[in-house]
Structures are given as structure tokens and as C-alpha cells.
């Protein structure tokens, strides 16, 4: 079993898998009210298959806000909006903890009530800029909290925990990393206090421990976690001796029976996971820069109990499925990390959605009629198999159809999916099909259109097995149009076994045998079936064997991604280069 799929225990909960979605600020909440948007309901629900979701950093009280369009958990409206989110996640069987984030000095008067000055342990400004509604601004010198004010801040965390539970959260996480208020107290560079919250290590850790005690008092220790990221350096926080500070803190945390300790990896040369793991008696979450392999091996090694994924989770709502099936991953788009709106937030496709993307034509004869659309997953008829297409050949037919040249030969209902040749893998079988099994590598023709959809239902008798030594792209490059041309040449005795045929290419005769003439040379009454008459699985199998043996040579001129397919079709229209262009799907 993939180790990420195993269950694990976090506090009072059993996680159904060991994948945790990292807390990530996404700046989609209402700027004035701090109410999470309706989009957030969808965003979190899309990712509910995670063993545990940690929400974006959320301010416990208005003075904790540090970024535009971040959400809070202090007002009735905020609690109600969060409730819709937790309901949506629970409806899908997920678990969700709210991350409490008080940014302390990493804020700006324009983000705070009555233009208040941000608060911090000491009056030391952070270096760098803060992003405000009116653009980046210098950090201001914060106001050092009076000792007597600190219980009030701790109380805000307690109230926020209460509100989080009211909003249906399964627990709460204290954000004690990234240079925000708790880490400002912990770190010697930002804490120069001389009261019981500053000076000694014990005193600098006191704020975090007080806050945790308040949160635990409200939720119980088994619903409270904490995130730390030693030596992250983010927001110009620094500590003179982090290798002493963090072991001390973790030892103090260890006795608290918390739901978990969450350690985010930083660029530090010191392996804090190795240092801290033995010191904490309880579930351990670890993340930061994980990919498929490191996530799995981390869990397999038994070092953390769960692996935390941030940016990859943001970009892959179905990350668990993708990781466990070795599927390709969407790349995170940094430009939309913190932008407003749905773009880059709820529109990352799942594998299923991506699989159903198809290159289609919408009208005849115009330049911009080719587009990549979403299409419904096909169902399989009794004589068909469902093929996950790995590669499809770009065919001269495509643009001729697109440009209307074959309009009267190929009467298409538009929009239509382009593409004719394919190579891929059988992922579904109609009840009447006996010659193929799930997982078989197949190549063939659609006898119709649709190869550029990533999953297509194809008549089984239009497919043949791909010889073991043929790649998907080579298999897809044995093209129908040229195949029919070959057949014509074979039939006419012009092309002999052992000769090299440049598929769809340099040899003008082959190309000229293909499309325009079909419209004029196909006998009346045979139009539209000419193509199908010529292609059958047996002929394809023979050709594939010829290619596999080296008797015929496949020349692939270029391999392009689906997103580049329209342009490649355009190139093929004019160029007819020295080989076949193939679209690759993975
Ligand atoms: C867009 C974005 C926003 C983030 N916001 C937060 C946050 O609100 N709270 C937090 O603890 N960490 C935040 N992080 C850090 C992540 O939780 C995580 O530690 C980091 O991204 C490293 O993991 P990754 O390499 O898997 O992305 C954020 C990261 C990203 C990419």
C-alpha cells in the first residue's frame, strides 16, 4: 500500500490518509469584514480528501491581521462563513483545523482598526515591505506590548478557539512560525523584553505556552496543534541560538499531549526534523518542499506521522489521487497565490477534468476555431474500449476539416473533437469485447474523430496492440491519413517492404495522396466511408509489426503538449515537415 494512504492518529481523530494540506494564506476574503468568501467553500471542499486540512492563517482578533483580504474568526459573520466551509469539508468526510495567525509587527496601520500601530514584544521594526491595499509599504516600528496587555492577547486566542469550534472546526493550530507574534516572542532578535516574557529562554517561550494553555483549555489538548519553522528567517525574524531554543520549546510542548507538532522545513543546514522528532512525544507532521518521492519516503521511513504539502496542494485539488497513481501534477501559479477571485484558486483541474480536455473545432474555415475544451467523459458501448490516450498524431486532416476543405466529405457536427490516430492504454472495456484487457497498450484509429480527447471510447476493431518495442509517440505516428496513403501505395505496388516511408512527410506523393484529392477523387456514394474502408485493425497490426521490425520507419518530427497542439496543427498545415507531429498527453 502506498504509505500516504495509511491511516494515522492525530489527537482525537483518525486521519484517513497521511496527506495534510498546509496552511496557506490565499487573500480571497472580504477586505473590510474579514469574512471568508463563498469561493473558499469550494476551494476547501475540493481538497477535502486530504487526511487533514489546515486552513489559511486567520486572525484571532482585528489587531492580528497582517495581510490584505485575509479572514478573521472574531465576528458572527466570519464564524457563519467558516461554518459553511467546515460543513462542506465534513460532507466529504474530511477533517479541518483552523490556523490562528496573529502577525504582530508584520502588519501595517492601514490594515488595523483605527490605523493602530501593530503590536510586538519589542519596538523593533521588521525589515522589508508589507503589502497594503495601496501597495507595498515599509514596516513601521511596532508598539511594544505592556506586560499587563499580554493576558488580553492570550485571551483573544482562547476566544478565537471557542469561535473556531463554534464554526465546526475539528481543531485549531497555533501559527508559531514565519516571524509572526508567537515567534517574535520566542526569538531573541525580536524580543528584548525584561519582564517575564523576555530574556531567558524560559521567558521567551512563555507567550507560546500561555497561548497554547488557553487554546487547550477551550478545545482540549487533543484538538490543538502548533506549527514551528526553525530558522526560517522569514519576516526578518532571527534568534541567537535556534538550536537551543527549539529543542527547549519542543521539550516543553511534549508534555502537553497536543494533537500534533507541525515542523516546516526551512533552508537551515541543521536537520531539525532529526533533532526535534525524538523530543516530542506525540504525532509529528512534517513538510516544506515535499514532492511525490520525498513525501512517500518520509512516511515510509516512519519519521513523521503525516506529510504536509503546501503549494502542490494548492495546485492539485486531487493531490492524493495524483500522488498515488503517479499522475502528472499541475504546477502552482505564483501570480495567483494571493490575487483576488477564482482564477488560480478554484480552477486547478483535477485529473478527471484534465483527462477530459479535448482539442476541438467550433466552426469551419476560421483561424481561431481550434480550442481546448472540457468534454464529458465518454461512456463505453458494448463493442468499444475506453482508451486513455498517451499520444495522438497531428493529421493533415485536422486542418483540412477545420478549414472546411473536407466539409462535404466529413459532415461534422460542431463542435467536434479533432484527431484520428492514437496510442494509449485500455482503461475500460465494453461487455462484448474479448480481445483486450485493462492495461493493454493499444494503437489505432477512431474511425471517426476524438483522439485529442485524453480519454476516448473506440470501436475495438479499430485498435491493435502496440508492439513492446514501439513507444507511444511512434505508435501514434503511424497515421491514418498516411496509412491510407501507404495502403494505396502498397496496393499499387509503389511502396515495397523494406523501403523507408516518411510518415506524413517529406515525400510529396504521400501527402498529395491524402486530403484534397479525397474530396474530388472519392467516388460519389463512398464519401465519408472511404476513410473507414481503408483502416482495419489487422492492417494496422501488420504495419505496426513492420515498424517494430524496422522494415518501415516512423519519423516523428516533433512532440508537443496538448496546449501547443493548435499551433502544431497550424505548422503542419503549411509545412508538412519531414515527419509526423505527435501530441503527447503525459
Ligand atoms: C501561498 C502560500 C501561502 C502560505 N500561507 C501560510 C499561512 O498562512 N500559514 C502558514 O503557516 N504557512 C503558510 N505558508 C507556508 C506553507 O504552509 C508551507 O509551510 C510552505 O509552503 C512549504 O511547503 P511546500 O513546499 O509544500 O509549499 C504559505 C505558503 C504558500 C505557498
Write the layout of secondary structure elements.
Layout lengths: L7 E3 L2 E3 L3 E3 L16 H9 L5 E7 L17 H16 L4 E5 L18 E2 L8 E4 L2 E4 L4 E2 L5 H17 L4 E5 L5 H6 L14 H19 L4 E5 L13 H13 L5 E5 L7 H5 L7 E4 L4 H9 L5 E4 L1 H5 L3 H6 L26 H5 L1 E5 L8 E5 L9 E10 L2 H7 L13 E2 L3 E9 L11 E5 L9 E5 L3 E3 L6 H5 L3 H12 L16 H6 L1 H7 L8 H5 L2 H13 L6 E6 L3 H10 L5 E5 L2
Parallel strand pairs: 3-4, 3-14, 4-5, 5-10, 6-9, 10-11, 11-12, 12-13, 13-14, 23-24
Antiparallel strand pairs: 1-2, 7-8, 15-16, 15-18, 17-19, 17-21, 17-24, 19-20, 20-22
Helix pairs in contact: 1-2, 3-5, 5-6, 12-19
The structure holds flavin mononucleotide (FMN).
Outline:
The protein is an alpha/beta fold and 586 residues long. Helices cover 30% and strands 19% of the residues.
The CATH homologous superfamily name of the largest domain equals Aldolase class I
Provide the number of structural domains: 2
Tertiary shape: elongated
CATH architecture level-2 label of the largest domain: Alpha-Beta Barrel
Terminal CA distance: 24 Å
Bound molecules: flavin mononucleotide
User: What is the arithmetic mean of pLDDT?
Assistant: 85
CATH topology call of the largest domain: TIM Barrel
Total DSSP helices: 19
Give the radius of gyration. Answer: 30 Å
Largest sheet: 8 strands, parallel, barrel
Strand percentage lies at 15-25%
Secondary structure tally: strands: 24
State the strand order across the main sheet: 3-4-5-10-11-12-13-14
CATH class of the largest domain: Alpha Beta
Regions with pLDDT < 50 over 5+ consecutive residues? 498-534
Helical fraction equals 25-40%
Secondary-structure-based class equals: alpha/beta
For this structure, the quaternary state is single chain
Amino acid at each position: 500500500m502506498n504509505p500516504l494512504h495509511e491511516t494515522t492518529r492525530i489527537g482525537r481523530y483518525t486521519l484517513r490518509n497521511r496527506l495534510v494540506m498546509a496552511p496557506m494564506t490565499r487573500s480571497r476574503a472580504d477586505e473590510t469584514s474579514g469574512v471568508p468568501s463563498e469561493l473558499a467553500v469550494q476551494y476547501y471542499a475540493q481538497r477535502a480528501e486530504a487526511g487533514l486540512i489546515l486552513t489559511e492563517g486567520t486572525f484571532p482578533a482585528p489587531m492580528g491581521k497582517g495581510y490584505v483580504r485575509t479572514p478573521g474568526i472574531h465576528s458572527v459573520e466570519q464564524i457563519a462563513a467558516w461554518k459553511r466551509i467546515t460543513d462542506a469539508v465534513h460532507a466529504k468526510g474530511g477533517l479541518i483545523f483552523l490556523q490562528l495567525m496573529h502577525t504582530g509587527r508584520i502588519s501595517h496601520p492601514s490594515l488595523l482598526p483605527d490605523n493602530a500601530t501593530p503590536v510586538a514584544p519589542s519596538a523593533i521594526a521588521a525589515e522589508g515591505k508589507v503589502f497594503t491595499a495601496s501597495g507595498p509599504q515599509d514596516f513601521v516600528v511596532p508598539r511594544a506590548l505592556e506586560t499587563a496587555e499580554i493576558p488580553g492577547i492570550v485571551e483573544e486566542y482562547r476566544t478565537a478557539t471557542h469561535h473556531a469550534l463554534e464554526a465546526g472546526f475539528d481543531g485549531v493550530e497555533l501559527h508559531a512560525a514565519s516571524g509572526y507574534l508567537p515567534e517574535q516572542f520566542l526569538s531573541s532578535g525580536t524580543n528584548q523584553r525584561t519582564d517575564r516574557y523576555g530574556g531567558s529562554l524560559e521567558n521567551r517561550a512563555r507567550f507560546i505556552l500561555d497561548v497554547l494553555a488557553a487554546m487547550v483549555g477551550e478545545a482540549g489538548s487533543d484538538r490543538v496543534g502548533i506549527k514551528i519553522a526553525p530558522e526560517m528567517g522569514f519576516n526578518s525574524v532571527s534568534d541567537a541560538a535556534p538550536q537551543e531554543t527549539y529543542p527547549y520549546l519542543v521539550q516543553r510542548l511534549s508534555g502537553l499531549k497536543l494533537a500534533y507538532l507541525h515542523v516546516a522545513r526551512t533552508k537551515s543546514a541543521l536537520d531539525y526534523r532529526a533533532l526535534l522528532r525524538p523530543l516530542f512525544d506525540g504525532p509529528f507532521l512534517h513538510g516544506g518542499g515535499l514532492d511525490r518521492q520525498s513525501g512517500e519516503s518520509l512516511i515510509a521511513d516512519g519519521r513523521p506521522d503525516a506529510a504536509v504539502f503546501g503549494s502542490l496542494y494548492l495546485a492539485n485539488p486531487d493531490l492524493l489521487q495524483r500522488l498515488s497513481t503517479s499522475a502528472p501534477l499541475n504546477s502552482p501559479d505564483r501570480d495567483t497565490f494571493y490575487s483576488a477571485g477564482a482564477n488560480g484558486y478554484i480552477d486547478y483541474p483535477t485529473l478527471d477534468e484534465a483527462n477530459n480536455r479535448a482539442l476541438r473545432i467550433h466552426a469551419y474555415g476560421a483561424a481561431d476555431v481550434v480550442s481546448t475544451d472540457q468534454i464529458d467523459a465518454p461512456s463505453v458501448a458494448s463493442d468499444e474500449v475506453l482508451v486513455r490516450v498517451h499520444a495522438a498524431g497531428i493529421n493533415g486532416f485536422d486542418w483540412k476539416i477545420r478549414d472546411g476543405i473536407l466539409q462535404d466529405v466529413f459532415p461534422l457536427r460542431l463542435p467536434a473533437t479533432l484527431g484520428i490516430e492514437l496510442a494509449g492504454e485500455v482503461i475500460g472495456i465494453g461487455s462484448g469485447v474479448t480481445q483486450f484487457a485493462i492495461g493493454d497498450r493499444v494503437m489505432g484509429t477512431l474511425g471517426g474523430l476524438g483522439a485529442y480527447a485524453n480519454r476516448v471510447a473506440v470501436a475495438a476493431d479499430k485498435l491493435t496492440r502496440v508492439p513492446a518495442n514501439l513507444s507511444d509517440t511512434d505508435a501514434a505516428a503511424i497515421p491514418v491519413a498516411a496509412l491510407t496513403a501507404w495502403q494505396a501505395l502498397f496496393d499499387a505496388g509503389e511502396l515495397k517492404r523494406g523501403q523507408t516511408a516518411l510518415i506524413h512527410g517529406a515525400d510529396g506523393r504521400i501527402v498529395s495522396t491524402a486530403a484534397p484529392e479525397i474530396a474530388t477523387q472519392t467516388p460519389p456514394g463512398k464519401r465519408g466511408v472511404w476513410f473507414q474502408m481503408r483502416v482495419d485493425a489487422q492492417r494496422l497490426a501488420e504495419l505496426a509489426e513492420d515498424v517494430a521490425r524496422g522494415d518501415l520507419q516512423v519519423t516523428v518530427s516533433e512532440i508537443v503538449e496538448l496546449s501547443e497542439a493548435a499551433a502544431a496543427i497550424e505548422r503542419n498545415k503549411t509545412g508538412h515537415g519531414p515527419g509526423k507531429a505527435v501530441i503527447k498527453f503525459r
